[in-house]
Amino acid sequence: MPSWSTATITSTRREWRIPAAAPWGACLGDMQSAILAASIAYREAHGLPEDHQLWDDVLRFHVTDEAIVISFTVDRPASA
After folding, report:
1. Can you spell out the DSSP letters for 20-39?
2. Which helix (H) or strand (E) holds 43?
3. Burial class (CB in 10 A: 0-12, 13-18, 19+), 26
4. Is 78 helix (H, G, I), strand (E, B) or coil?
5. Which residue in 18, 11, 22, 13 sits closest to 36, CA to CA?
6. What predicted TM-score, i.e. pTM, was given to this entire model?
């Protein structure tokens, strides 16, 4: 009998892009509203109540030449 198993996982990456082109960069208000929107979406994607404290590593921030990208990834088992 085999001692291994297999699974197929489908990942969905959600992103929010805040314009941050030189020389001015991103605005605080744009950052705050994008973080709020991403936090709400994260809670919804994971079935968490709106007052649930998020861990400090659930959202990722990446800097590109033109934007700051806030993201998270949701993994789901593929449909049978």
Report:
1. --TTT---HHHHHHHHHHHH
2. helix 28-45
3. middle
4. coil
5. 18
6. 0.83
CB within 8 Å of 73: residues ≥ 6 apart: 11, 12, 13, 14
Pairing assessment for the beta strands 67-77 and 60-63 based on DSSP bridges: antiparallel
Query: pLDDT by residue for the chain (80 residues), tens digit each?
Result: 789 988 888 999 999 999 998 898 999 999 999 999 999 999 999 999 999 999 999 999 999 999 999 999 999 877 65
Cα–Cα distance for residue pair 79/9, rounded to 1 Å: 9
